[in-house]
Every structure is written in structure tokens, then in C-alpha cells.
């Protein structure tokens, strides 16, 4: 894959093989973010789990303390009073049979799908469309709920979903390159704490095998997994 001059200049600023502290890694990501737009900063975590086993899938949601830097596009499958609550809370699209039909026809311009339990029978028919994209509502992530108002507000305010992919990696956006160092470290710390909290009881051996942070167009910076949670001192130094 051919890389541009800006990318090549970015990777020349640090050692791609070195393991950095969280603070140093964040500094490097900010320094190498050279795109003409505000790049998203993403954390990639390689876990020592076997996602082929149901009891080793790591998934859930968390609220990032500094937000994500963008407002999520949220749709809600609901009817009647619950649909009205979702609209009041700020959902981008709300519907029942009509919304199910739109998604079947190709409407996928959203980041989060929420559904009330009574509509999951209909929403379940969208499994082949939403499942592979990680958009299928699920009780474990708080996206199947009767409290649609709370769910919409939380997801539009910085709550994010995460789930291991086919090879055991978790990818979570932790902000924008324009965020200051403290905000990115706060979000990184929150993610690492959540990932450790969600460790499956059946997972054996080393759990966090690799941690990398990068911007949309920039190179990945590797963080020492043993230092990934130890950012309190760095936050204190920044304050």
C-alpha cells in the first residue's frame, strides 16, 4: 500500500517498534495528526480471548468522561408513547414497521440502533443487515430497553459500544485530535478500566496483549500494555 508524504513524515518522528506510556503515545498521535480535518482518535486493544467462544466475547458500553467529539446518529425502533419519548430525547429517526422496512431497503445512515423489547421480533428480521455492522440492538449493551429516553440521551452524549471482532480486537474512538492531552488521557483511562472490568472469567493467560492509539490518517503508536492503565500520574502532571 502506497503512503503519502505526510504519513511518511509522521512515522519518521518516532520508533514504530517502541512501547510508549499512554501520555507519550497521546502526544505523538496529536503531533502526527496532519490532515486538513479534525481526525478521530481511536484506541485498538488486542485481547487474549477466543471470540469464537460465546463466553469469551467481550462487549458492552461505557460513557467517555470527555465525550467523543461527535454526536452519534441514533435511531429508535419504538411505537406509541415510547416513540414519543425517543423523539423528545433527540433520536434522529423513530419508527416501528416503517423504520424496519427502511432499513431493509438500505437505510444505514446511523451509528446506534435502539429498540424497545416489544419490537425485537420485527427488528430481529434485520439480523443479516445490522449484525455484521455491529448495529443490532442487544440488551447487554443497553440498546434493547423500555427506557428509550435515557438510552438516546446517553448515546448521543458520549456513550459508546464496544465488542471484540473476529480475531479478538476491540476498537473504540476516544475523541478528536483537537482534544487536549488531558481529555484524551481521561477517555483512554476509562476505556482501559472498562476493558479490564469486562474480562471474561473463562479467559486464561495474558488478557491485554497489545494497545495501539492512532488518528484517522496517522500511524499507530504502540502503548505498553502494562502502563496502559497507569495514567493517573500523567493526568495529575497535566492538571
Structure commentary:
- The chain is α/β, with parallel strands linked by helices.
- Helix content is 32%, strand content 20%.
- It is built from nine helices and nine strands.
- It has helices at 5-11, 22-31, 80-89, 97-104, 120-123, 127-130, 148-156, 181-197, 232-238; strands at 40-47, 59-63, 74-77, 93-95, 112-115, 159-163, 169-176, 208-215, 221-223.
- Strands 7-1-8-9 form a four-stranded antiparallel beta sheet, with helices on one face. Strands 4-3-5 form a three-stranded parallel beta sheet, sandwiched between helices.
- A hairpin with a 5-residue loop joins strand 8 (208-215) and strand 9.
- Helix 2 crosses helix 8, helix 3 runs parallel beside helix 7 (148-156) and helix 8 runs antiparallel to helix 9 (232-238).
- The protein is globular, with a radius of gyration of 19 Å.
Summarize the structure.
This protein has 239 residues and is an alpha/beta fold.
- Total count of strands: 9
- The level of helicity is 25-40%
Major sheet attributes: 4 strands, antiparallel
Number of helices: 9
Radius of gyration equals 19 Å
Poorly predicted spans: none
Kindly estimate the percentage of residues that lie in beta strands according to DSSP: 15-25%
Order of helices and strands: HHEEEHEHEHHHEEHEEH
**Looking at the structure, what is the overall shape?**
globular
Mean residue pLDDT: 90
Biggest sheet strand order reads: 7-1-8-9
Estimated structural class: alpha/beta
Gap between N and C termini, in Å? 41 Å
